[in-house]
Write a sequence for this structure.
């Protein structure tokens, strides 16, 4: 069992890194540990938890930014923002449930370090698009900063982008600043019922290309829709294709009406979810809780939206025991596979990644037993020139490799 | 402007370098005579000029790769250039460096509307992308004011913004993929038509790296459906504080306008005299607030903005009733720079960002500085995101005025950092703000950024003399002294 170190402030964090650097001790950096099972298993005996470095540093609603200490729980930040009718536009997923933990345990820094974004990704950008600045400690035990607290800032390299998705392998952050946006007054969802995958993705791409400012575009095949906690979705008895519109009331009504008219000729049936049930539905989509059973292997695949059904079809040529959920108008596929023997699990990654060869994209094995994650490349392997460049970038922050690699 | 000393060894080998480039890029792609090179001697920061060693205009990715590889092998510096519209000297030539112009990469390679993206070469103009998809109802969102001329490759290098970035983001938020050539000649592709990067977000760090990390040879951009409609409101205020308060209240009310611009009294007077947009000449501050989206939404939000403005004491409220009137409201704002050019021989355009709540205070202190430096300043800015564009009026032929203008500009940028803002919101550091980087960053911060540059360009050959006040050698930056066991196990809570 790894020792967990819990520095209480930026200077303690810096001293922890300094100790590790001098003694050659590799560290695994985590926010609050909610995604400890995400990625390949850590080989480090020492975990640095940022959980004790928490609290809001600065929140000025009319500036549309919030600065917090890195370990601040995401749910506290979201609750604070909600009081002022604001939110994080990138809709960070809560992977607690699918990774075998509890819900609502993650930190903001953890969400940023994994660069995970929810359904609104297609309209509002990823976690990295809202990450404006940070302070942290590099692998030389130096405290440094980059970016700032301004929405508009091009001073120096945009290191926040580099930190987003770096999984704590470049630096241990103690403070982060993110952009926030007003929360919509209304959230409505148009459901198209009974479309097959191909027709559904075509409809979603058409919706995204409409002037109706769609902020969510997902497709749940019948099995998944049947598991929804929302009666109106579960009781349809068929696949459900969902299109979300948000904003002020008169606008939401007008856009929904226009979308209904657009899809009336092709959709066998249509339904609507209003604000409360819409929020619940998109949370299910965001957290991928409807896909597969808890024992299944779960892949998260990013591809060009129109290619989604073809990617799934290619995987199904080799493996039939899959369930899928499409988000991002077909560009994000959550795909479950029943666990098999080691040879089958290993072959799965060849099947999944092979399906992306032509159209481009990447696949992450989000959920799998530790032994599988130790054996199979969890993250998309990179071509040699890119891998070499990434290694040099890593060394520019962490020359002794104390933050590990993922 | 101090630039690194020229390397006499390189200057002596000029003929050899030119012929090596001619072997890679045949015909007119290598320009080595003074007359031919003259158009490249500066970018849009035209107060500073310098002839390059030689100009090369490659046409293929392979040529770019071979040029960079040659330069790396022979220790030759390279300044990449898009359309040369940088306002911070980002593509200003260096006397012992080749100027690598990307203007021949001017083709749109693919338009994919179902996936809402376009794949283009870096020399395509920003507006050229929107023009190509306009008939289908789409556009590319970032709109720097040079959009008719500036290239998308240059936009990537500078992370360009525009008047609509509060709602639609900067260049970095509208890119899906790039292909780039590293200094060692390797070609790497980052992203594509899919979303988000695998591994480190190198595209994110390339965007806004001001030509110091690599040369972009292809760009995949996000296309957006054009908003169904746009309307603008012209608001005049008897005080700057009233206008600033209105801006904050609009945002606090949960409204994100497509654009929200502010002009001070002098800017209003200049612009009105120049284009006659019907601006209220009695206003101390003018706001243009543009709402875009579905018509019913725009109408609804315009009403709310007008109500807020009246509540904050607006003395003039005019809502555009036609597309023609909307464009007229913007005409004055868009002509503000040339209008200022009419009343002063020269002007210097700055680009700091400040928190919105400090706006009034910053304007007052800027006037105080104006008295101190005995130079006029006119203010035009993107109020929505706190991005200021103060214009300092001076005469470049008067050496003392030029010096005072530079000092005044530096004082304004220091002020921006002091109130919690930054040196540059969208124009880039380049040579212009290079020597002020230490105001915003510590040496440790800057060293970390330079180490990142070393990962891409270990000999500091790409765009030298830009961004960093003093480039330290990679070997020196990489040095690390480890005190084995000297630091006791930290007294940190353990579990």
């Amino acid at each position: 069992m790894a020792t967990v170190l819990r520095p209480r402030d930026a200077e303690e964090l810096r001293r922890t890194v300094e100790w590790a650097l001098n003694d050659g001790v590799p560290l695994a950096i985590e926010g609050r540990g909610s995604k400890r099972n995400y990625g390949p298993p850590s080989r480090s005996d020492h975990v640095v938890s940022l959980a004790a470095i928490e609290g809001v540093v600065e929140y000025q609603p009319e500036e549309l930014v919030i600065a917090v200490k890195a370990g601040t729980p995401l749910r506290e930040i979201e609750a604070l923002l909600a009081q002022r009718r604001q939110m994080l536009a990138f809709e960070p997923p809560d992977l607690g449930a699918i990774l075998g933990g509890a819900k609502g345990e993650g930190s903001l820094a953890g969400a940023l370090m994994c660069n995970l974004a929810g359904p609104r990704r297609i309209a509002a950008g990823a976690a990295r698009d809202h990450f404006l600045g940070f302070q942290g400690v590099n692998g030389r035990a130096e405290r440094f900063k980059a970016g700032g607290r301004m929405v508009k800032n091009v001073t120096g390299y945009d290191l926040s982008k580099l930190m987003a998705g770096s999984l704590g392998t470049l630096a241990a952050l103690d403070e982060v600043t993110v952009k926030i946006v007003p929360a919509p007054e209304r959230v409505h969802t148009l459901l198209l019922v009974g479309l097959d995958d191909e027709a559904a993705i075509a409809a979603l791409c058409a919706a995204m290309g409409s002037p109706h400012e769609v902020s969510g575009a997902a497709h749940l095949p019948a099995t998944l829709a049947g598991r929804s906690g929302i009666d109106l979705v579960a009781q349809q008895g068929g696949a459900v294709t969902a299109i979300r519109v948000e904003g002020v009331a008169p606008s939401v009504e007008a856009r929904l009406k226009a979308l209904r008219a657009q899809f009336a000729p092709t959709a066998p049936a249509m339904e609507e979810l209003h604000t409360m049930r819409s929020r619940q539905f998109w949370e299910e989509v965001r957290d991928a809780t409807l896909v597969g059973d808890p024992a299944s292997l779960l892949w998260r695949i990013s591809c060009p939206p129109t290619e989604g059904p073809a990617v799934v079809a290619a995987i199904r040529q080799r493996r039939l025991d899959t369930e899928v959920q499409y988000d991002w108008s077909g560009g994000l596929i959550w795909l479950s596979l029943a666990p098999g023997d080691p040879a089958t699990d290993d072959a799965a990654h060849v099947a999944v990644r092979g399906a992306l060869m032509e159209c481009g994209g990447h696949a992450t094995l989000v959920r799998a037993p530790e032994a599988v994650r130790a054996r199979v490349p969890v993250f998309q392997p990179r071509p040699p020139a890119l891998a070499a460049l990434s290694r040099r970038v890593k060394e520019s922050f962490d020359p002794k490799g104390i933050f590990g690699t993922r | 402007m101090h630039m690194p000393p020229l390397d006499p060894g390189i200057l002596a080998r000029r003929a050899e370098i030119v012929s090596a480039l001619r072997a890679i890029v045949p015909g007119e792609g290598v320009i080595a005579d003074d007359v031919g090179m003259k158009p490249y001697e500066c970018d849009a920061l035209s107060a500073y000029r310098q002839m390059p060693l030689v100009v090369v205009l490659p046409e293929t990715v392979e040529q770019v790769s071979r040029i960079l590889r040659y330069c790396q092998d022979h220790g030759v510096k390279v300044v990449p250039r898009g359309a040369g519209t940088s306002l911070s000297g980002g593509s200003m030539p260096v006397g012992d460096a080749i100027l690598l112009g990307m203007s021949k990469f001017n083709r749109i390679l693919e338009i994919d509307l179902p996936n809402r993206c376009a794949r283009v070469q870096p020399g395509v103009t920003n507006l050229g992308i929107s023009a190509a998809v306009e008939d289908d109802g789409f556009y590319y969102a970032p709109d720097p004011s040079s959009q008719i001329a500036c290239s998308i490759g240059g936009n990537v290098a500078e992370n360009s913004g525009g008047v609509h970035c509060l709602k639609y983001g900067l260049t970095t938020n509208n890119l899906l993929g790039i292909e780039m050539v590293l200094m060692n000649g390797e070609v790497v592709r980052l992203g594509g038509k899919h979303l988000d990067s695998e591994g480190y977000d190198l595209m994110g760090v390339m965007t806004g790296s001001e030509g110091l990390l690599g040369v972009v040879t292809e760009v995949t951009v996000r296309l957006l459906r054009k908003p169904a409609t746009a309307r603008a409101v012209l608001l005049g205020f008897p005080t700057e504080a009233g206008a600033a308060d209105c801006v904050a209240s609009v945002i606090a009310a949960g409204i994100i306008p497509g654009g929200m611009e502010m002009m001070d009294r002098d800017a209003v007077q200049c612009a009105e005299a120049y284009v006659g947009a019907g601006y209220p000449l009695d206003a101390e501050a003018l706001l243009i607030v543009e709402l875009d989206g579905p018509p019913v939404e725009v109408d609804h939000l315009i009403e709310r903005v007008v109500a807020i403005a009246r509540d904050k004491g607006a003395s003039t409220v005019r809502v555009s009733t036609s597309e023609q009137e909307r464009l007229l409201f913007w005409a004055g704002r868009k002509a503000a720079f040339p209008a200022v050019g009419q009343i002063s021989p020269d002007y210097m355009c700055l680009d700091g960002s400040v928190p919105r709540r400090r706006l009034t205070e910053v304007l007052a202190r800027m006037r105080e500085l104006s008295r101190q430096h005995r130079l006029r300043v006119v203010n035009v800015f993107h109020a929505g995101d706190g991005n200021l564009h103060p214009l300092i009026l001076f005469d470049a032929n008067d050496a003392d005025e030029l010096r005072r203008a530079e000092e005044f500009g530096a004082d304004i940028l220091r002020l921006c950092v002091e109130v919690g803002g930054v040196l540059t919101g969208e124009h880039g550091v380049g040579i212009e703000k290079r020597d002020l980087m230490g105001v915003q960053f510590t040496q440790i911060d800057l060293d970390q950024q330079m180490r990142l540059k070393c990962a891409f360009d270990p000999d500091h050959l790409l765009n030298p003399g830009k961004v960093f006040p003093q480039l330290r050698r990679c070997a020196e930056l990489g040095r690390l002294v480890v005190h084995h066991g000297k630091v006791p196990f930290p007294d940190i809570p353990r579990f």
